[in-house]
Amino acid sequence: MAQRGIREYDAKRMLAKYLPDYLKDFSYRGEIALVSPDTDLDSLVAENPWLKAKKLVVKPDQLFGKRGKLGLVLLDATWDEARAYLKENMGSEVVVGGVAGKLTHFLVEPFVLHREEFYVAISSDYDGDNIYFSSEGGICVEEKWDKVVQVRVDVLEGIDRIDLHSKLPSSLGNRLPNVESFIKALYRFYVDLGFAYLEINPFTFDNGSIVPLDLVAKLDDAEEYWKSKKWDGLVFPEPFGRTMSKEELFIKEMDSKTGASLKLTILNPKGKVWTMVAGGGASVIYADTICDLGHARELANYGEYSGDPNTEETYLYCKTILDLMTREKAPNGKVLMIGGAIANFTDVAKTFKGIVMALKEYQDILCDAGVKIYVRRGGPNYEVGLKLMRELGEMLGVPIEVYGPETHMTRIVPLALGGGE
Amino acid sequence: MISATATNPKSVSTKNDYVLFDRGTKAFVYGYQTNAIQRMLDFDYICKRDSPSISAIINSNRAGIHKAFWGTKEIILPMFKTIAEAAKAHPEADVMVNFASHRSAFETTMEALERKTIRTVVVIAEGVPERQARILAATARKLGKTVIGPATVGGMTAGAFRIGNTAGTIENIIASKLYRPGSVGFVSKSGGMLNEAFNIISRNSNGVHEGVAIGGDRYPGSNMLDHIMRYEANPEIKMIACLGELGGTDEYRIIEALKAGKITKPLVAWVTGTCGPVLPSSVQFGHAGAKADSQKETAQAKNEAFKNAGAYVPNSFDNYGEMVKQVYEMLKSQGKVKDVVEPEVPRLPVDYSKALTSGLIRKPTTFICTISDDSGDELLYAGKKISDVLEQKVGIGGVVGLLWFKKQLPDYATRFIELVLQIVADHGPAVSAAHNSIVASCAGKDLISSLCSGLLTIGPRFGGAIDDAAREFKRAKETGLSPEQFVGEMKRKGINIPGIGHRIKSVKNPDVRVLLLIEYARKNFARTELLDYALEVERLTTAKKGNLILNVDGCIGILFLDLMSSCGAFTKAEIDEVVKLGYLNGLFALGRSIGLIGHILDQKRLGARLYRHPTEDIAYMLPKPEDIDCKR
Prior knowledge:
Number of helices of chain A: 13
Number of domains of chain B: 3
CATH class of the largest domain in chain A: Alpha Beta
Strand content of chain B: 5-15%
Helix content of chain B: 40-55%
Number of helices of chain B: 24
Shape of chain A: elongated
Number of domains of chain A: 2
CATH architecture of the largest domain in chain A: 2-Layer Sandwich
Oligomer: heterodimer
CATH topology of the largest domain in chain B: Rossmann fold
Number of strands of chain B: 17
């Protein structure tokens, strides 16, 4: 659970549908279309007749910015031109901020000829929310940050009693009341729909009506229970360049169905060092120690399991890791660290039962791949759990070293990899 | 039993602001978390607290009481449905440990914060939305109260008070010496690392005084600095240790306070997530807040800033313990801290279930069961798996064989049992059992009560003759009485022969049910010796009176004995036992239940009204006043 970026398409869709609840004369109709590799362009046109009637903008919608500077935005195009552009660029690889990835999603919307560019953003921090506004928005807003008006909204007070009027630049002239009511409505929309960040840069006036041009947004995915109806089937895309492997997706799906927490990110599938660490805090410390000791390149995965997963879940989680780590052989064998802090309430013996099941199943493959296993854990029933592991090592013929709370948590890292004292 | 509600009159106001928990602290546990409740009480017990730290449980589903252990004794904890009721009844409780799920954590915490007497709320739930968490934090600040969490296990004050599951098992609490206070105040984000830190601190100093995990979310209800400032103010705490995490700017608040000289006690600090820069930026670590959005939020930058501000920063987490030791030894040499003389820790009794599974204890059982077993993976009937029972299609007759006789009977025997059950299933609405069931059902009684009402009429005069008939005919035949002698003996004793006689049926108007049973037995049984004997008896009795025929009860009882003695599955002793214990009336009760339930449902469907017997159908013949006059 955390803040997660959403597509500009989804954010604009919500804006068009729900902002009028807060701002009656908001006339943005949300003429937008999302094109993915599976989109049938003919039926898209059938559903969105404006595509053929208006001049269009086409831009990637994959959670990265500076699209104009990267030359990835098509402006003032006919549908045929847009279509040709989509055909040419769909699936092509680009590098954004050092990350390479494929273009898979494009936003298509009407092109709005404009001169003025306004900036508005809402962000949140510990005590409250911040509203930023500038009459000089657009790609250079950061360079002209001194022009940006900042308004603080206390998390308990809300926006009702905030005097926005006097803070907005008087240069807005007769548009000032429009901008004021737009920002207030936008703030309420931000709060009520579970946003964690929202930036419209720029928006402009088209025939007197506000039109958002470019938009960036994050939602707090913990709000899903309350907001899922308004989010209306929204899917959180993965960050650009990050395509989830089958195994990562499998763990993610399992995670979404249980009260426990199961996380897996594959960093280097050919890496020698694999971890299966219990706990969000401990897992980071294991990764730290592995990197500290100079094995960052060999670190194959980051992951954690916590919140008392059941035997089947730990079995499947462990099996996934074993499967991944034994696909390719390494000349000097590989290392699996089954680590964790001293648990508060998780039954160690019970969670180890699932791990033991998986290890047994992979006995031959583990021997063949020259896998060495290091275990460190404490907590309820840890004696039984550790004994289970020791006996398993003897039985399987796989080297398993087992340590309890008397050994420092990350001591198994230098034991496994060398280095340290 | 002693009552947990006998309370320490100590009120909230006598505590210093920097003390959240002391040996007198009383708490509510929101949510029926029986394990956490017992863990808190066990901790209280080994700390030798005067009274339990839990005033009451709040359980939105049920009010009442909860029984828990206090050492070897049992105590009663009151249970309320609402926070308001609990707070009103127990103003001494100033902490609420909130186990509500992420869906209701916000409302319940807000409600608790609004109670005057509740000063601290601990929110365990993970996945509380950020805006809700920020409102909780801001509300607590406004009211001068403390929220710990969300997404935490909580924390504890050593030797005084434990939040829920913090620090795990009692063995671990003893190993980390948390039953008595040390001099180190600790705070971390991670709840999982809290226990590890207790372990490290106990090995490298005189132990923990207080430890809190603020939770791994981006916006915790209280931040690390809040707790560090409490530790700074608390004279019992001589040094402070904290464990931060990449992401967020919480650590910079501490660093600012260090720079401003607001923290004068030595501070050991480490920020985890130094691996962040070498991993792809898109990795979301286990904690929601653990993501560096800028260079300043990286673990490296924070550790460096801590060092520059004068904190004691190890080279890596591996050296965290050594750094704690170094600072502790420094304070010791300055005479600011002393090693603790260990108090005697009361032994906590082992839980029965735990001792039993680990083979430490044994106990004679109270009950024995020899017919079925639900304790394994699959339900067993007389040792036979339920899946096999179904697969082999043993039928109801086969199940009766397994559960009554513990035998897998041959097919023709199970079919005979089923035949009996079908034949006795019903005999119309007028017979005693059905009538009673119907009357009870008409009186508005439920199905089970109405069924029982009918079943209770089964006895020697109604439906209960199966056993008696079996017993008498068996006795007569086994003692070598001829049919004539048997009939003569019964007549002399003035006893009607059980199983003989019918109200309506007679030789000329035979009972079809009896004919069907006899036909089946002749066709399938190896021998029918007792039946043959009974038919001889019937020949004699019907000669006197046409309706003294072998009736359905008698026929069932007698044929069952023939079945048992001819099928080879029963020894003589077993047959004697069946008769002695009265198994066979069970056949009637079981079969007839089907009909009785039918009658009851029938009445309910018809919406039948209360039945009242017509007075003209009753002869009222009361005694005269002088008849009831008691003369001495």
